[in-house]
């Protein structure tokens, strides 16, 4: 099995060592190399009137991150993992992208950053920008469940949301590559209200039948790999229905393909990926259509 | 002829420190910034000694050390591990890899936990290659 790398991006706000530790199940899917990245945001050390560049502050922040990373690395090294670390100053987005390229990672794990007013409006765009520019899948990791418990095995019961786009086909293929840690896949398609154009019951039933058949075909792909799968159709507003399905089916994570449209387009079109990143209570695994499998 | 020492570390401050100590003591420093380039330079340059960190980008010192000791042409080059990672962790990590099927590797010739005094480093280098 190929030795895969995950890039664990932490600002020491949301994602700590217990979050990383809860992802160790990924080793069964070939992820034996973790790379830590902490970006010291430039405005924390930038020039101040009368003080110049805050070099002492940079040294302090670097060393704080270094102490944490050494401790984390020691734990992972002792488990036989391979570990690397980056502590850099700059803007998070370009640093995440350049580190992902430098290390040729297979998965990027991020948390949700604390949001200011601007970010509240455009929230999620950072993740979409990463997806657009790196073609590497991103796991927006929320490891604390709404119940307050730690989501110990996020890959155990993923809800796979399918819209029959090329991106969702890639999401299927990508998810299958985690077959060693998947217990059951819940495949869901949401029929939007707009699709009920016809008032004919026959046509509506045909629509249901057609989508259900497609879902069943996807389930078969997982079952061929020895993974249990079930399919469900929901009707209504896509994001709300996905969240509803995730709760009803006790999903541990939501998986979706992303189109690769520019982040602003995604936001203004109100894409599912944006909403998952911003609002979902569960971890979201977003797979770009251009992902290299 | 001056002996050549390969220093492998991604931290520019540490690289500068090691380079200065080596030069002041009459050695020729060779520099690599991660385990991957470190290993390739070790193969190309056959240095007399390697000073290396553990937590590095691309390839860690744990893997690099293992590959050095697995390579017939490199295994006799003495190694000083200079790292923030504790010696005990380094040894346990090597044991963990052995448990996963790799064969055991010998302990490094010297292990120094950062930070170290220039004289201490110079003395250790001298003891290993002069």
Summarize it.
The complex is a heterodimer of chains A (293) and B (130). Chain A is of the alpha/beta class.
Please characterize this protein's 3D structure:
The complex is a heterodimer of chains A (293) and B (130). With 293 residues, chain A is an alpha/beta fold. Helices cover 41% and strands 22% of the residues of chain A. Chain A contains eleven helices and ten strands. Chain A has helices spanning 17-21, 42-45, 55-78, 92-103, 117-122, 125-134, 166-176, 201-224, 238-248, 263-268, 272-279; strands spanning 4-9, 31-41, 82-90, 107-110, 138-140, 158-161, 184-191, 228-235, 253-258, 284-288. Chain A has a ten-stranded mixed beta sheet, with helices on both faces. In chain A, helix 1 (17-21) links the parallel strand 1 and strand 2 (31-41). In chain A, helix 4 runs parallel beside helix 6. Chain A is globular, with a radius of gyration of 20 Å. Chain A starts with a strand and ends in a 5-residue tail after the last strand. Residues 116-123 of chain A have low confidence and may be disordered. With 130 residues, chain B is an alpha/beta fold. Chain B has one domain: Rossmann fold (3-Layer(aba) Sandwich), CATH 3.40.50. Helices cover 45% and strands 18% of the residues of chain B. Chain B is built from five helices and five strands, in the order E-H-E-H-E-H-E-H-E-H. Chain B has a five-stranded parallel beta sheet. In chain B, strand 3 (49-52), helix 3 (61-70) and strand 4 form a beta-alpha-beta unit. In chain B, helix 2 packs parallel to helix 3 (61-70). The model of chain B has no long low-confidence stretch (mean pLDDT 95). The chains are: A alpha/beta (293), B alpha/beta (130). Chains A and B meet through helix 3 and strand 3 of A and helix 4 of B.
């Amino acid at each position: 099995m190929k030795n895969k790398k995950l890039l664990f991006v932490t600002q020491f706000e949301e994602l700590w060592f217990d979050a990383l530790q809860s992802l160790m199940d990924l080793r069964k899917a070939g992820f034996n190399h973790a790379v830590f990245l902490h970006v010291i945001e430039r405005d924390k050390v930038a020039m101040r009137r009368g003080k110049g560049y805050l070099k002492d502050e940079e040294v302090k922040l670097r060393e704080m991150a270094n102490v944490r990373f050494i401790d984390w690395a020691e734990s992972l090294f002792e488990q036989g993992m391979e570990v690397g670390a980056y502590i850099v100053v700059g803007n998070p987005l370009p640093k995440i992208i350049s580190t992902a390229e430098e290390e040729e990672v297979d998965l990027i794990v991020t948390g949700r950053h604390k949001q200011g007013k601007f970010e509240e409006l455009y929230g999620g765009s950072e993740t979409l920008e990463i997806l657009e520019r790196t073609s590497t899948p991103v796991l927006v990791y929320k490891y604390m469940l709404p119940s307050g418990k730690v989501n110990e095995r996020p890959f155990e019961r993923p809800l796979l949301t399918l819209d029959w786009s090329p991106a969702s086909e890639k999401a299927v293929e990508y998810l299958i590559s985690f077959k060693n840690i998947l217990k059951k896949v819940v495949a869901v398609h949401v029929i939007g209200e707009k699709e009920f154009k016809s008032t004919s019951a026959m046509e509506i039933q045909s629509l249901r039948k057609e989508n259900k058949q497609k879902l069943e075909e996807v389930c078969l792909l997982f079952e061929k790999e020895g993974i249990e799968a079930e399919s469900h159709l929901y009707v209504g507003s896509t994001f709300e229905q996905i969240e509803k399905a995730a709760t009803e089916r006790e999903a541990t994570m939501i998986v979706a393909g992303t189109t690769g449209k520019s982040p602003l387009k995604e936001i203004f079109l109100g894409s599912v990926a944006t909403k998952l990143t911003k609002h979902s209570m569960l971890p979201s695994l977003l797979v770009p259509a251009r992902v290299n499998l | 002829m001056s002996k050549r020492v390969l220093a492998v570390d991604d931290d520019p401050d540490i690289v500068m420190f090691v380079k200065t100590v080596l030069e002041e003591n009459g050695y020729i420093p060779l520099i690599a910034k991660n385990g991957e380039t470190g290993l390739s330079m070790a193969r190309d340059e056959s240095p007399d000694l390697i000073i290396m960190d553990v937590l590095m980008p691309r390839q860690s010192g744990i893997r690099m050390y293992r590959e050095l000791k697995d390579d017939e042409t490199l295994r006799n080059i003495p190694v000083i591990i200079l790292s923030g990672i504790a010696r005990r962790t380094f040894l346990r990590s090597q044991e963990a890899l052995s448990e996963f099927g790799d064969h055991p590797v010998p302990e490094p010739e010297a292990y120094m936990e950062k930070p170290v005094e220039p004289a201490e480093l110079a003395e250790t280098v001298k003891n290993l290659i002069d």
